[in-house]
Model the fold of this input.
Amino acid sequence: MTTTANAATIAHLADAPAEDRLAAAIALVARQFPDRTAVVAGAGGDGRRAIDYATLAAAIARLEGELASARPVGIVARAKRVESLAVIAAACGREHVPVAFLAEDARDLVGELREWVVLDDSLTLPPTAAAGPRHEFATVPPQVVVATSGTSGPPKLVDHSWDSLLAAARLAEQWHGRGWLLVYDATRWAGLQVWLQALLTAGRVVVPASRDPDLVANACVQEEVSILPATPTLLRRLITSGDRPLVSGMRLDRITLGGEAADAQLLAGAKTLFPQAKITHVYATTELGEVFRVTDGEAGFPAEWIGRPLPGGVRLSMRRDGELLVQLSRDTAEVATGDLVERRGDRLEFTGRRSDVIVVGGAKVYPKRVEEVLRAVPGVADARVYGLPSAITGELVAAQIVVHEPLPAGTTPDQVRSAALAICRERLEPHAVPRLVDFVKQLVTTPAGKIPRR
Amino acid sequence: MTPLEAIAAAIRTVLRDTGRDAHDISAGMLLAADLGLDSLDLAQTIVLLERSLGIDPFREPAAGVTRPTLRTVSDLVALYSSALDLPPRSTP
Done:
């Protein structure tokens, strides 16, 4: 019953207007399978909660009623729970009320949304919301506003349409009714994509109680997660630091990587652990949305993609310095992505973001390249490389290393450190060899699940 | 730990990290000619000293003090001693 019982009906929803689709999909599943779980929160932990489709549909109908009578200018979704965000999105879509999702670090931007009404997990409009005539926008009002992650500059608000938000949400029937792991922040673009796709396909969103690798693996096994969208950093942590028997007990059919570049080592590791999984690497930016996806399991993308139109009309080109340029369609401008690529054989591989480049005494260092070298050192589970300000050389390369637990008998962290530095000296330019190496239990990740570089 | 001890320890770490022999280090040694330290090595030494001594005199230069030319280990000792408000001691 978990797979395609109502897949055909769900597929028909694709013809409904995009703004209606989420509410319609949830209502449909609620009618046919009221008890089916829509969201599992705190999965793998003590505070597990499950919310079924009937409960979700009832909450949407209630909020729709409130919105219909109050007609607010817009709604700022400030709920913490995924099910509340889904209720807000579905009700706002159906009532044609603009909705904004503001992640924690973008809360200050609420000032830009004057007169919009803030809605939290109580899902109740404040009494003041029911006042005045409907606001008239001078231009076409936005439908969905999402804040950028702020990894490359301060967060800013980006307008989207329901059509663009749901563009990637069409999935073949074999993917309907599945368990989806949500490790992303549910208010950001990547997180929104996960829960929207799950709820539009009669699936369930599984939110682990924390990002601890063992707990995540446990949640995946218990809740029968088969679709795992994650950043390479989060997947790497699961593979290298998670309890082996637990992680290999996961039955993944689909792994979708995004947010950062996936290197060959990680892709090979994922293929070995989850041989039945279809591994996809999505290249997207908050401003452009999804640009392309790579499904051949290799790092980077085919070099021949440069300069010829891709399916959907996307055109890629490369600046002299290796920055990837994207033109989404003939009538849109070419956009500099800030992502650097380098040719290796017949592939173009990502070397990192332009803003991540560390400049040591005038020479450039790509932190991702140094991380790849460090991760290949025996005993090293994961590594983060960043620039440390220096009065003498401008910046200095610094590294944090997570060692495999336990290390092989007789190996000390100090030996791993010496070996790591020796291998770096062998494979990297002298200025790229880390000058400060620290051991950490776990790498710090941003709320978006990426490695911070500064 | 005296500034000299901290500086000697930092330089030894730098030499070891870069695959060179860690010598005995004394105050009169020339940073470049005797110890073979380049600007990158010096930058690392300063980061290590910020950790062991808690200050970076290059980042927060003491008021009215211009950055001295650093040629010898004792130049470094003098710089850190003044930043730490210690009287520069005669070398052992």
